[in-house]
Amino acid sequence: MTELSRGVRLGVDVGQVRIGVSRSDPHGVLATPLVTVAREQNPRPDAMPSDLAQLAALVVEHEAVEVVVGLPVNLAGRHGPAAEHVKAYARQLAEVIAPVPVTLTDERMSTVVASRRLAERGVRGKKQRAVVDQAAAVEILQSWLETQRRRT
């Protein structure tokens, strides 16, 4: 197997209301929180939703070589309505940021794990809601990076 190519990767946790975004260092060792993007709830059919535009701008700003999107697979390993929604969103994102690839990765429990870790650090309530999406994006990207390293 080849080594993971150098470059920043963005991790994305797609929610109905917010999108958490994380980024890796260029060596692909550590994921860190970046930003939470508000989902545009009623985008005009003839315009790109503001959240997709913001994600595209982040790809350019951080010179990302890949975007890793968490796919909410249910505990039985099946793709329910949430997974179909994320797959559709990932397809839209891939069109907007091409040729930068978009990769889907199993994110089972990422938000649960992120919430637990934040609570362990004493971050609760409104403060936790403000950062849990970014923390989930960190969990998604860090898990993906570690999987890639194990394969090399």
Q: Which keywords apply here?
A:
alpha/beta, five-stranded mixed beta sheet, about 45% helix, about 150 residues, single chain, globular, 4 helices
Uncertain segments are: none
Number of helical segments with 4 or more residues: 4
Biggest sheet record: 5 strands, mixed
Tell how many strands the DSSP assignment holds. 5
Q: Report Rg.
A: 15 Å
What would you call the quaternary organization?
Answer: single chain
Percent of sequence in beta strands: 15-25%
Overall, the morphology is globular
Helix content: 40-55%
Secondary-structure class: alpha/beta
> How are the strands of the biggest sheet laid out side by side?
3-2-1-4-5
Distance between the termini: 5 Å
Average pLDDT over all residues:
88
The ordered H/E elements are: EEEHEHEHH
Structure description:
- The chain has 152 residues and is of the alpha/beta class.
- It has four helices and five strands.
- The chain has helices at residues 50-61, 81-97, 110-120, 125-151, and strands at residues 9-14, 18-24, 31-38, 66-71, 102-106.
- It has a five-stranded mixed β-sheet with strand order 3-2-1-4-5, sandwiched between helices.
- A hairpin with a 6-residue loop joins strand 2 and strand 3 (31-38).
- Helix 1 packs across helix 2 and helix 3 (110-120) crosses helix 4 (125-151).
- It is globular, with a radius of gyration of 15 Å.
- The chain starts with 8 loop residues before the first strand and ends with a helix.
- 34% of the residues are buried.
- The mean pLDDT is 88.
